[in-house]
Each structure stands twice: as structure tokens, then as C-alpha cells.
Amino acid sequence: MGLETKFKERDLDIPKHRQELISAMKLDLTNDRNVLAIFYGGSIGNQNTDLYSDIDLRIVIKDEVFEEYRINKKQRAKN
Asked: Cβ atoms within 10 A of the Cβ of 37, count?
């Protein structure tokens, strides 16, 4: 039967907004010399997304900056 929502028209824009977020994150993270790699888990990583898929982002950083990144992860998300 599927999920019924009164916001169906609004929800159809979710993939577009998700892609905008992915593009912004990629730009931010690929310009950071402390980031060694980024990859996606979950449905995006498996290339099996649906309308409501979230973004499971994995970031590999240099050991010497790990603690700084961990402490500031909420601030970094605002980028």
C-alpha cells in the first residue's frame, strides 16, 4: 500500500534538495586538505534510493585533526 501523505507535491522535490545538499557537501569537503576520502553508505551508497532516502555520509580525515573535527561536527554541518 505505501506511505500516504498530504504533502505529496512538496515531497516530490526531496530528491532535488537532497542532490543540492550532496553537491554542497562534496564541494566543501573536497576543498579541505584534512579530508582524505568521502563516501556514502545506506541507500545512496547502494544506489537504491527512494523519495525519502537520507544521506549517510562517511568522511575519512587525517588522524591529527580527528578530535577537532569531532568537536566541531555540528558547526561543520552548517557549511
From this structure: 9
> Contact, 36 vs 61, CB < 8 A?
yes
Q: State the average pLDDT over residues 3-28.
A: 88
DSSP conformation letters of 20-68: HHHHHHHHHHHT-TTEEEEEEEHHHHTT---TT---EEEEEE-GGGHHH
pTM exceeds cut of 0.90? no
Longest dimension (CA), the chain: 50
DSSP SS3 for 3: coil
- Rounded to whole angstroms, how far apart are CA atoms 42 and 62? 24
